């Protein structure tokens, strides 16, 4: 019981911050003529018996939902349960295959053809709000989202004090997987200790430093800032103390004999042949890694790193997936009801059972099966040191990746020059 309570407390930490499982650089937003949208407040309804309301006033309510290909069957089941629960209304719910990473781009291609209800990662929120894409949550819908979900996930759906979506998952982040038959829990507490133990065993430690999502963990851990100013420009101080000292830390890490760079295929392949004993990744690789390691499967937060002779905890990006309502829907209140249903406790537990997704719903996160999940527990532990991606613009990713590539390829340009060049490109208007 003490272990479960402790883990529940750790899980709660992930909600205090603010993660396709993998983050790609933002797509270029095409020039689209989107008229100004007058977004009315969704009317208040009596929360005492929502199921007794005819949300279509005698006419069928037609709604379309976007979701990934892998989620189609699950979404259909959720919608069928929804229609059975709210049986006073005649529902006509259809589905389109648009995954979360593609939601913003697909909406901007043709706003009039977009779904009434759709899922997207929280780093797309700013652009979707700027495009007038989303209804602001109000009334009982806002109250339910705030009451049922962790503060971090609610914050990730909030912009300028307005809530624009229902939190759906809290699992878009990364942590450390390791082989407990080679590395001990003490070995993985520090980056230096882990590298030394892996090298002594003739094994490798994996981290994709050439990806801007992962390399940020060094700078953010050192207190570096990624923010957006009043004019909408990216703020970044990764080239000034103390963050500038990170360059040397990364250089030393990528030059270690036990270090290995690469993509997910390198990571999962290395755990499969046991050449890798530790690697940074997210929950999307949990099944593959646990299958390879068996009883030696373990995971924990990121280690501390040596920075100017001191041990500093590595940070990470923490992300959430959200479900929003299209501001152009013909049925805003009914669409809100469906979005709320798709993200409720029962359906977040279902999403965990079917897709392995980590819940943002507080009650769902306390489910025994969720608490017993090694990867989600590690993600929750790292959550105390994670930073939301809400304040990261698209021009961050390319320069950060270029700096990482320079570190991995052992570029001999002075590190401070590389840092200055990276930051200059990131903050360019």
Describe the structure.
This protein is of the alpha/beta class. The protein is about 40% helix and about 20% strand. The chain has helices at about 1-15, 70-85, 105-110, 125-130, 140-150, 150-155, 190-200, 210-220, 245-255, 265-270, 285-295, 330-340, 345-355, 360-365, 370, 375-385, 395-410, 415-425; strands at about 60-65, 90-95, 115-120, 160, 160-165, 165-170, 175-180, 205, 225-230, 235, 260, 275-280, 295-300, 305, 310-315, 315-325, 385-390. Strands 1, 2, 3, 6, 16 and 17 form a six-stranded mixed sheet that branches. The chain has a five-stranded mixed sheet with strand order 11-8-12-7-13. It has a two-stranded antiparallel ribbon with strand order 4-5. It is globular. The termini are far apart. Residues about 1-35 have low confidence and may be disordered.
Instruction: Give the C-alpha Rg.
Output: 22 Å
Mean pLDDT: 89
Q: Gap between N and C termini, in Å?
A: 53 Å
Query: How would you sum up the major sheet?
Result: 6 strands, mixed
Q: β content, as a range?
A: 15-25%
Determine the fraction of residues in helical runs and give it as a percent range. 25-40%
Overall morphology = globular
* Main structural class: alpha/beta
The DSSP helix count reads 18
């Amino acid at each position: 019981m003490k272990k479960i309570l402790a883990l529940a407390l750790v899980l709660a930490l992930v909600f205090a911050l603010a993660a396709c499982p993998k983050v790609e650089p933002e797509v270029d937003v095409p020039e689209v003529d989107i008229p100004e949208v007058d977004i009315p407040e969704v009317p208040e309804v009596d929360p005492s018996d929502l199921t007794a309301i005819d949300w279509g006033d005698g006419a069928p309510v037609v709604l379309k939902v976007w979701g990934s290909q892998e989620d189609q069957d699950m979404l259909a089941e959720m919608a069928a349960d929804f229609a059975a629960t709210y049986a006073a209304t005649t529902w006509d719910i259809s589905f389109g295959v648009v995954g979360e990473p593609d939601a913003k781009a697909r909406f901007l291609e043709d706003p009039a053809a977009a779904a009434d209800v759709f899922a997207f990662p929280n780093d797309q929120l700013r652009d979707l709000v700027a495009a007038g894409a989303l209804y602001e949550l109000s009334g009982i819908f806002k109250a339910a989202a705030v009451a049922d979900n962790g503060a971090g996930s609610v914050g990730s759906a909030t912009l300028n004090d307005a809530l624009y979506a229902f939190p759906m998952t809290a699992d878009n982040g990364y942590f450390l997987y390791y082989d407990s038959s080679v590395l001990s829990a003490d070995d993985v507490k520090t980056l230096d200790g882990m590298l030394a133990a892996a090298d002594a065993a003739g094994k490798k430690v994996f981290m994709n430093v050439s990806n801007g999502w992962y390399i940020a963990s060094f700078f953010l851990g050192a207190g570096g800032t990624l923010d957006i100013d009043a004019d909408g420009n990216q703020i970044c101080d990764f080239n000034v103390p103390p963050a500038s000292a990170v360059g040397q830390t990364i250089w030393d890490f990528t030059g270690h004999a036990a270090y290995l760079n690469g993509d997910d295929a390198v990571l999962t392949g290395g755990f499969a042949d046991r050449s890798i004993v530790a690697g940074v990744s997210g929950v999307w690789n949990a099944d593959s890694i646990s299958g390879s390691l068996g009883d030696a499967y373990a995971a924990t937060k990121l280690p501390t790193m040596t920075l100017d002779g001191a041990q500093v905890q590595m940070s990470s990006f923490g992300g959430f997936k959200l479900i929003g309502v299209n501001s152009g829907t013909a049925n805003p209140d009914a669409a809100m009801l469906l979005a709320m249903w798709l993200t409720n406790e029962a359906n977040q537990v279902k999403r965990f059972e079917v897709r392995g997704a980590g819940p943002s719903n507080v009650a769902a996160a306390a489910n025994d099966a969720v608490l017993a999940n090694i990867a989600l527990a590690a993600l929750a532990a790292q959550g105390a040191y994670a930073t939301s991606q809400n304040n990261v613009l698209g021009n961050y990713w390319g320069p950060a990746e270029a700096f990482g590539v320079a570190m991995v390829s052992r570029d001999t340009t002075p590190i401070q020059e590389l840092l200055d060049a990276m930051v200059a490109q990131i903050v360019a208007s």
